[in-house]
Amino acid sequence: MKLEVAAAKARGDVVDYVPRGGAAPEAFDSAARWPECAKLIGDIRDQSNCGCCWAFAGAEAASDRQCIATGGAVAVPLSAQDVCFNANVDGCDGGQIITPWTYVAKAGAVTGGQYNGTGPFGAGLCADWFAPHCHHHGPRGDDPYPAEGDAGCPSEKSPEGPKACDATAAAGHDAFAADKHTFAGDVQTASGEAAIMAMIAEGGPVETAFTVYEDFENYAGGIYHHVTGEEAGGHAVKFVGWGVENGTKYWKVANSWNPYWGEAGYFRILRGSNEGGIEDQVTGSHADAKWTRAGDSD
Question: Can you tell me which family this protein belongs to (predicted)?
Answer without folding.
Answer: Belongs to the peptidase C1 family.
